[in-house]
Amino acid sequence: MAARSEAFEEAPIAGSCWAGAANGSRSGVAALDVVSEQVTALMDSFLAARVAELVKVDVELECIGLEVAGLVRASGKRLRPAFVYWGHRATGAEHDEAVLWPAAAVEMLHTFALIHDDVIDRSPMRRSRPAAHEALAANHREEGLAGNSSWFGVSAAILAGDLAFVWADQLMGEAGLDPAALDRARRVFTDLRVEVMAGQYLELRLAGLADATEDEALRIALLKSGRYTVTRPLQLGAAIGGGDELLDAALCAFGDAVGAAFQLRDDVLGLFGDPETTGKGAMSDLREGKRTVLMLRTLALASPAERMVLTRVLGNPDIEEADATRARQIVVDCGALDSVEQLLVDKHHLACQALAQVPEPARQALRDLADLAAFRIG
Prior knowledge:
- It is a single chain.
- The chain is mostly helical.
- The protein has a single domain (20-375), classed as Farnesyl Diphosphate Synthase (Orthogonal Bundle), CATH 1.10.600.10.
- It is 74% helix and 1% strand.
- The chain contains 18 helices and two strands.
- The protein has helices spanning 6-9, 21-27, 29-57, 62-73, 79-89, 100-121, 132-143, 149-173, 179-206, 214-241, 245-272, 275-278, 284-288, 293-301, 304-313, 321-333, 336-353, 362-375, and strands at residues 125-126, 129-130.
- The chain has a two-stranded antiparallel ribbon with strand order 1-2.
- The longest helix is centred in the first third of the chain and has 29 residues, at 29-57.
- It is globular.
């Protein structure tokens, strides 16, 4: 990042698990490759048809459809679809292209969540492009429409997210699965959708709690991000394959541990990540005053003077880069960063232990995906 001080550059971040981040980013590529290209092609075709349907209703609807399609296309990893696919393979099932549809449905649901999350967080960027509410506000201004462009953008983005939610359900319904498998998949998909919205609400509430605890932050992170990223997609894939209770328990233990590691890494990247790599701003979490595990641990370990600095920065929408740099330095100096990195490694280790009963090739693929989720750099 451009504005880091020399002291920050020399901080112990280089000696933590970040040293393994590049390896983790590489190790999951093969496990993703089986899924990502096919899911991307499926979604491109699906969204082209949906945008064409919108245009038939009214040509002015094209922009909202293209905004959803553009955000989907801007994603390169397809991590959640990969967990659906390998959850299915963990049952001993062979490759089945019908599974790509529910995998794409989970990715479409993720698009819905991102659009709404950026509205809630007032994030200007997503995946190195303007967030949906910013892009749609710009459309409003360019068309010379009357009214407040910013509020139009927020309102239109909410509707774009709702549209992605509907399309996720449509993808699930068009999977071509047998009725029993589809019914099992829908039950997990419902749990996934409820949990991500419940977690989002609880995260909003947590930001306003003066006495928020680390346990609360971990629980909410698991609901909002961990389970919807890892555990439920795995269980969805396994449900399609007809997995048993023993497998489900192993996948749940693995998924919850990886999901927690994923969110802890997300919290670190939200503060220390390079926007050129993460595709989003590096001050959003500070401006929103998010009570992440990393920040709660920092508040607990910081000196009184350092806590005063953080109190001024957290939740202040007008902070500048110098404020963010000082906050980052405090996170490093008090030892919070290293301790969260160790917690992340512990979660990763628990996840790998849970894979003992999972058959190959799913076991190795899931281990690789765990590396990617925990040690990614973007």
